[in-house]
Amino acid sequence: MNNKIVLKIKKTDDALDLPLPKYMSSGAAGMDLYAKVKEDVIIKPGEIKLIETGIMIQLPEGYEAQIRPRSGLALKNGITMLNSPGTIDSDYRGEIKLIIINLGKSDFIVKRGLRIAQMIINKVELPEILEVSKLDDTKRGENGFGHTGL
């Protein structure tokens, strides 16, 4: 029995030279996405830039793609993504674009083809929504942020 899904990927006309997203190891959960910039983009500390990837995807209904930062860029350079993880819905057909922020102390240069983010494919369950006047009680109840201590 084959449980694999098909992820269809279309490159934009100006990204034909860039690799398709790919898994960098046999156990990787995320596939790397590449920066599609015409020329180097400098992201100064505290600055936010929109970086295009040059790909559009088609997922089966019931799936999403989550776009996440790469841990190495975050640790070494302070580069991360706002709206993380970003969600690509199964009915979206536009180019995947990344909201990148530099939380580091130095300028960061995005070069064409840089592995800039990762994409993870997940199954999505759509529940039936039922409005109620009371929820079941639990030991935790309404205790939220930091209720269990450090």
Automatic annotation (TrEMBL):
Gene Ontology terms, MF aspect: dUTP diphosphatase activity; magnesium ion binding
Enzyme class per UniProt: hydrolase
Pathway connected to this protein: Pyrimidine metabolism; dUMP biosynthesis; dUMP from dCTP (dUTP route): step 2/2
Cofactor(s) in the UniProt record: Mg(2+)
Keywords: Hydrolase, Magnesium, Metal-binding, Nucleotide metabolism
SUPFAM superfamilies: dUTPase-like
InterPro entries: dUTPase (IPR008181), dUTPase-like (IPR029054), dUTPase-like_sf (IPR036157), dUTPase_trimeric (IPR033704)
Protein biosynthesis as UniProt keyword: no
EC number: 3.6.1.23
Domain dUTPase-like: 19-149
Record-stated family: Belongs to the dUTPase family.
Protein name as annotated: Deoxyuridine 5'-triphosphate nucleotidohydrolase
Native species: Thermoanaerobacterium thermosaccharolyticum M0795
